[in-house]
Amino acid sequence: MAFDRKLKYGMVGGGPGAFIGGVHRMVAALDQKIELVAGAFSSSPEKSRQQGAELLLDPKRVYGTFQEMAEKEAGLPDGERIDFVSIVTPNHMHFAPAKAFLEAGFHVVCDKPMTTTVEEAEELCRLVGKHQAVFALTHNYTGYPLVKQARDFLRDGRLGRIRKVVVEYPQGWLSTPLDAEGMKQAEWRTDPARAGVSSCMGDLGSHAENLARYITGLEIEELCADMTTFVPGRRLEDDANVLIHYKGGARGILYASQISPGEENNLRIRVYGEAGALEWHQENPNYLHVRYLDRPSEVYTRGSGYLGEAAKAFTRIPTGHPEGYLEAFANIYRAAGNTMVARITGGKPAALDLDFPTVQDGAVGVSFIHKTVESGRKGGWVKAAYTPPA
Amino acid sequence: MAFDRKLKYGMVGGGPGAFIGGVHRMVAALDQKIELVAGAFSSSPEKSRQQGAELLLDPKRVYGTFQEMAEKEAGLPDGERIDFVSIVTPNHMHFAPAKAFLEAGFHVVCDKPMTTTVEEAEELCRLVGKHQAVFALTHNYTGYPLVKQARDFLRDGRLGRIRKVVVEYPQGWLSTPLDAEGMKQAEWRTDPARAGVSSCMGDLGSHAENLARYITGLEIEELCADMTTFVPGRRLEDDANVLIHYKGGARGILYASQISPGEENNLRIRVYGEAGALEWHQENPNYLHVRYLDRPSEVYTRGSGYLGEAAKAFTRIPTGHPEGYLEAFANIYRAAGNTMVARITGGKPAALDLDFPTVQDGAVGVSFIHKTVESGRKGGWVKAAYTPPA
Amino acid sequence: MAFDRKLKYGMVGGGPGAFIGGVHRMVAALDQKIELVAGAFSSSPEKSRQQGAELLLDPKRVYGTFQEMAEKEAGLPDGERIDFVSIVTPNHMHFAPAKAFLEAGFHVVCDKPMTTTVEEAEELCRLVGKHQAVFALTHNYTGYPLVKQARDFLRDGRLGRIRKVVVEYPQGWLSTPLDAEGMKQAEWRTDPARAGVSSCMGDLGSHAENLARYITGLEIEELCADMTTFVPGRRLEDDANVLIHYKGGARGILYASQISPGEENNLRIRVYGEAGALEWHQENPNYLHVRYLDRPSEVYTRGSGYLGEAAKAFTRIPTGHPEGYLEAFANIYRAAGNTMVARITGGKPAALDLDFPTVQDGAVGVSFIHKTVESGRKGGWVKAAYTPPA
Amino acid sequence: MAFDRKLKYGMVGGGPGAFIGGVHRMVAALDQKIELVAGAFSSSPEKSRQQGAELLLDPKRVYGTFQEMAEKEAGLPDGERIDFVSIVTPNHMHFAPAKAFLEAGFHVVCDKPMTTTVEEAEELCRLVGKHQAVFALTHNYTGYPLVKQARDFLRDGRLGRIRKVVVEYPQGWLSTPLDAEGMKQAEWRTDPARAGVSSCMGDLGSHAENLARYITGLEIEELCADMTTFVPGRRLEDDANVLIHYKGGARGILYASQISPGEENNLRIRVYGEAGALEWHQENPNYLHVRYLDRPSEVYTRGSGYLGEAAKAFTRIPTGHPEGYLEAFANIYRAAGNTMVARITGGKPAALDLDFPTVQDGAVGVSFIHKTVESGRKGGWVKAAYTPPA
Question: What is the count of structural domains for chain D?
Fold first, then answer.
């Protein structure tokens, strides 16, 4: 990233008590090329100020609303104003700030799922195209180096044509009615007004869908979902099991759960081809298991010299010293940031720098969530092919 | 087992080149209480003789047909004739010998799936009842000590009411058309005339169904199956994914596969209750993982003093010295054998001795296989509740 | 094993309450080629009779003493008398029966460590040579198929010249003074009169030494041992850590422990060569890990088609269905039994049939135990090269 | 950390091609409370400038020598000058800059091993005391949350008095003569002029020693080391195996290796007490295994609510989302930074903020390294008790 200053960004959301905002700030800081300089951290101006003070920001750049931030930052001189915004609010508050900042000429990093409706998702696709903005959606699991290696192994053909995908993302933390007991993270995720049509599929299943699509390149043709709400009083599903028909004949199982005690963030994927298979596990992400029909299975280790270009490019420390969630998440910022610098400096981003989830990925995810809800309501298979606006 | 002689048995099937027959013979021998004395090992009398000679059997008790064996053994004096028969033929050849030996007054050990039709399965249920025979179906995976412990943990309530079951049994050995290349084990398993309506579900899925039912006690109400044949020219499905609604509201995912390269016999079950969960893995069967909402997870080890009565009763060697497939399989013979001795000596079998899969378990399994085929053909959910004849 | 009858054997030891006797009986029975027909199961004739009755033996062949058994069996006609004896008594009672049965013309299977003194070990070497007997020492861990594969990988040179060996065998069951509380298995193992000069090294360390030597072929030149007795009142060491200089320059660490809580039978070996390394773990014995300087590591699975001849020959069931301790132990009986049949029938044993631990292995083990005790007492390095009588 | 500005620091070392300097910069940045503002990155002023430019530093604060940096920074006004220096040079270049910055009134973060001689280490102890400086040695592995939990479990007595410690740190990357082939990281680590008296023990063994001492609190009384140089032409040992007698009677095995192919950074510790044991593994650091005499073993997961205060305080993200090497390393900076702020603001550091390795830890480590070298040369046990200057 040849650039004579750090990228500057502002944050929407991420106030006191939030979780993912702090993650975005850590991962943006890690490589020391991106600097937080502004924020509208909360719908409460008081809380926004409090958060800004804790972050040692210039109080003039801590705003009461995202609209104010978009407008005032746009009016700052070049080199002083932010280059991009990070939107880390609950789902229902992604669309409006994304639209506002795109229209004000900023690049955008946005948390997932991108929007609560397909219509909003498609409008964002159009806005990104119109403004030629960089838009990165933080489906952070594709930032893991060995996820990139898995994708490359499927592309290079060594495992043959894909026949079956099994991807799962169970959690257990919503096994009890935390949402009814005032726990903030649980409340909004199970509230249709803030989470959208789905809780479990929106929060977890969309990551699983994105991971499977990133690694395999397969597109869904039909799906059959079984959506269940186990915890009494909860208004959205907390468990979701999906059978999938991919275009071209591959089959899939995708499931997500919030009521599986003892499961933490057990995102795991297995892909079976005609000649071999691979398995990757988010909770132990520095290893990629590759298996064959008639040879010993192999374990690939992050940081090793025998890995491919992408796996190497997104690695910070040598093999055997584990990288984790934050480093993978930071890779979304690294790639998107490099692409922004290229745009700002009039250069062309390197191919590896374009390796981050886009606004189109976001639209596919939102469509997927809605299709699972539709299937669950109907009780059977539904057509689910979807192509987002370019 | 207080009995002044060894139990004697004969075998139907298990001739040269067979696989499971040799397993039955090893596990029957392990505890030194059961003796092979007769056999109709092949539909070819010559091969039957050859097998009998290799097993050092008295040639007079090596028969050309199972009918001959049933008849002649029945005519031998008490203490000399066999006590039971083990039927280890391909699926389509279970029913006829089972019927013949039951009618000739013998107890039966039979391989799974029990029959190729529900009608035959139900007839066996009635015959077993009529003749008051001991009938053991070798769903061998329930013989593992920690599978018994898992069942007991779910019964004793520590994990709360069950919400979700995920059981899987992938294999990869049929990824290529071995069946078209003359490989005997592959041929009959994919031949509708010998395997019945299903290959993958019959061979593997029925084990998964039995394991889940044994551990959880849950009964299936509805299911939705996705059955696929991947290998060109194959006549039965080689991959099967099933969503399940259990009676009482629990949800399930059950899948089996023969085209998952690198998977060997990766039967694995996870059961999630309201308060905790457990996981067991056939390929590393000496450990049972128990997880909770708010406590460190636990690993239970086979052979440990803190285990329950059933897990202890079906263990042969101390903790840390792994037991495997044969010992678990032998537990079916041990329990059924003890029950036979009780019947023969007029005693009452101990509760633990009744811990083996019965003819009713077999009928449930056959019904399940047929329901998955029906659902797969229809493309959606089907009612699948089934109660076998007592 | 072309032989027209089963091999017959008698047992010395293995009476009520014993552990390893029952193991020997199970593993001898597993392949249905070896039959228990006689025994002197206890120093108490009453207990010997009781054990014989439980095993359904002919009471005439249940003896009060091993001397009586050796003498009377020797007098029985060919085809009726035993072919070999299995000695499963505590350590101090291996030598006398081994000598008696060798001199009476029988083959011998003997538990380890072979004797309590080097002199006795060497006398057995000479007796075996003199009587041209088959003598198998049950260092059972070398019976695991993947241990054989590990040996073959080191022989075939793919891992380069060996530089370092780390072998460990921790247990925890003697962490408390069970021996002072009347627990039979603990009592004799910590009693110098019955166990010999060492408890931990004799019981566990000798297995580790044998395993390392079997796999690597390396011979010990010098060693430095740290022997500790942690449990108050215990008379022999319950923890032993050893540094090793092998001939040719390789280095080793070998340790054993009886006071490591939570460790069961955690025998594990890692061997590092110039070009690669391997690791095998007794508690999960169906996998062999092979690692390289610049390639992904590999996992070899028992039962796979890509394994070598020895690993295949000593495997009973397909890959993914775990084999365990009993099957590995049974491989000692299988190999030694086949060699006995060759001797009896005047044939030549196949190379694979000679793959069992010999009387010379036993002598090397006894010497090793004594050298560690000597080093521990001295507090430093001692010369430990040893060559047993041929 | 209540402080109205970020802590400012300068770096000595960490120029182009260096490894650990980049790590220090990432981990210092992670929490956004510490800012790099100055540096003497290389003994070559040109390379130092190049590195400063790449880091977007003010060129006026990029210095040609560390002496110049110490002097000039000391002359800058309060709030502008650095608060501390990070020394990330090869071993022989730790002492001089540490001394210079301590004498100039700065706090110090220093890489390990602290110095190449015990005399230098002790002088640093005295200087730190004299100047009342904060001095943090980056034995980064003690920054892992579950390492802190392990320490707390041993302190709270649940595992009983410690009997045995097994700590190992094998690597394989120096299996071939990389140092003779111009690889920079290999060159200085095997060069006595830059690494000191030891390569393997200094680089890896000192981490193992520190980890074991941190977790157990045990002090070494005697040790017996076996030091070997396997790669021809190498001037320092590349493999080291040590037996240890701890004060109070516990026993230990500590080993480190650079010639163990396939091993990456396999730092692992097992501690056995009278009543239980624990195991932690750096390559999978989010899990702590606790085992008992008579209960199922437990797995503690980083981020869980049931963990203790220290484990929680040094965790950034929820359970199931893995943290790794960088986060643990950053915990050294977090604690030391908080302590510095307390000193600067005249406050008292919280107990948890003092949880970082000190100059005394560094002196103990340097003494340990020298004692292993002494023992290896002598070939036997040496007294190794050591108390650093307060």
Answer: 2
